[in-house]
Structures are given as structure tokens and as C-alpha cells.
Design a protein that fits this description.
about 260 residues; Rossmann fold; 5-stranded parallel β-sheet; transcription; Sig_transdc_resp-reg_receiver
Length: about 260
């Protein structure tokens, strides 16, 4: 385990005693500090004295199930104050968990190594340091990726997740504007040719929002024949001349990283 993960704290919430204790043991072997809870109510009690870097959350539990617990720790906001990895036997609920914006999802039964790798990945992602006005902030960089092609969106998103970003996505300009009004990112990647609204128009509308004042924008296109006069025009419109003539995940990641230098 890297120094970045040593002494990180995990709260394991599961009503299955054997599974709960096995997960606790395996995580402790990896160097994590682990506390357990038998259901949502017990989990809320533990949070009064334990500040976790990650919560592993079972869904089907007595007294208070996983969904009820998740709503409690969200409070009135759109996102939990703690990173959450959902564990459930219901594979068909993945779309629901994505809508809830949990940090990860594993279907039971699972290999313990898969769980450990996912825990490490989520904690690394949420521990990435961001520079804001010259000060180091102990949180992950947030990116919103706007891409209408679902396969390409997955490829780009995976690249950013692997590099430690917190990733939000949208497959249309309208959805992007609604999503970012609720959860402001540090950088936005927008495909130039979206199906509903042109990417440069989306960027222009977003930049007019007061809460988006300090957000960076990167537009991209796979159209290598684009006229450079169009690039200059778009740059002037959005106030940033960052239009990448590629939809390669590696090049987009490099472009996003460069805005923080």
C-alpha cells in the first residue's frame, strides 16, 4: 500500500456478520483503519465518533437499509459528504446507484481482491490534491465530461477516474447545464458537435453562470478538418482558446491537467 493510503479510515456497514468481519480483517491487513456497523442506524451512530475516508454500504439490511442510510448522510445536498461504495446482490440496480452518484458499485458475491482494489481506487481519487488560488486543497479535482457517444464517454471517463478525478458525465448539452448548476466542477470537457446544442454554445451559457466563474473549459472534436478560423472564433466566444482536435482519452486528460498548471 502506498503512503497515500496508510491509515485511511473505512466504515464497513453490512448485516452479514461473517462477511462484515472478513472484509474488516482483509482491509486491516492492507493497512486501513476499519470500523464496522450492522445496519444503517448503527452506521449513523458510528459516524458520530468516526470520520471515514470511505463507507462500504450494503443495501439489504434491517432497521435502516442502505438507501435510507445514504439519504441520511446526503442531508439536503446532491452528494454524500463521504465517498460511498455500494455492495449489493441486486445487479439490476446499477442504474439507480449511478443516478444517486455513489462512488462505486460491486455486485455480490465478489472477490475480496476486487473489493480492496475498488476501495483503494476510490480513496486515491478523493485524496487527489487540487490547487485553488495557489493554496493546496485536500480534495479530488472534479471534471464534467459532455459526450453524446456512450462508448466514447465510458472510455474518457475511465481514463479520468484512473488518474484520480471525480467524474460527472452528461450526454447532452441540456443535461450538462442542469447537472453543473447543481454540482460545479473544476474543469469541463465538452464535445463540439453534440446532438442537441453545439458544445461552444453550452460552454458560453455555462460561463455566464456566476457559480462557474472559476471553471476551466476544454472543447474537443475528432474532426481533423476543422477550420482554424472556427477555432479562434470559438476561443474568443468562450474566453479560452482550448479546442483539442482529438477525442483521445489520453490527449483530453493531458489538456485537462494543463489548465491547473
Amino acid at each position: 500500500m502506498s503512503n497515500q493510503l496508510k491509515k485511511k479510515k473505512i466504515l464497513v456497514i453490512d448485516d452479514e456478520v461473517d462477511l462484515r468481519e472478513m472484509v474488516k480483517y482483509q482491509l486491516q491487513v492492507k493497512g486501513f483503519e476499519v470500523t464496522t456497523a450492522e445496519d444503517g442506524i448503527d452506521g449513523l451512530e458510528k459516524l458520530k465518533t468516526f470520520e471515514p475516508d470511505l463507507i462500504t454500504l450494503d443495501m439489504n439490511m434491517p432497521r435502516m437499509n442502505g438507501l435510507e442510510f445514504y439519504e441520511k448522510i446526503k442531508g439536503g445536498s446532491d452528494k454524500s459528504q463521504y465517498p460511498v461504495l455500494v455492495l449489493t446482490a441486486r445487479a439490476n440496480m446499477e442504474s439507480l446507484f449511478r443516478e444517486l452518484d455513489v462512488d462505486g458499485f460491486i455486485t455480490k458475491p465478489f472477490e475480496i481482491e476486487q473489493l480492496i482494489q475498488e476501495c483503494e481506487s476510490i480513496i486515491k481519487k478523493n485524496s487527489r490534491v487540487v490547487s485553488v488560488d495557489g493554496q493546496q486543497q485536500g480534495r479530488a479535482r472534479k471534471v464534467c465530461i459532455v459526450e453524446n457517444d456512450s462508448d466514447r464517454l465510458k472510455e474518457i471517463s475511465y481514463s479520468f477516474l484512473e488518474s484520480g478525478y471525480v467524474v460527472n458525465t452528461a450526454q447532452s448539452g441540456a443535461c450538462a447545464m442542469k447537472r453543473m448548476a447543481m454540482d460545479v466542477p473544476d474543469v469541463v470537457l465538452i464535445k463540439l458537435k453534440l446532438e442537441d446544442i453545439s458544445g461552444d454554445v453550452v460552454a458560453l451559457k455555462l460561463k455566464k453562470m456566476e457559480e462557474m466563474e472559476n471553471v476551466h473549459f476544454v472543447l474537443y472534436t475528432s474532426d481533423s478538418a476543422i477550420d482554424m478560423h472556427i477555432v479562434e472564433h470559438i476561443g474568443k466566444k468562450i474566453g479560452e482558446n482550448r479546442l483539442i482536435e482529438s477525442d483521445s482519452p489520453a490527449e483530453l486528460l493531458q489538456a485537462a491537467d494543463s489548465v491547473f498548471v
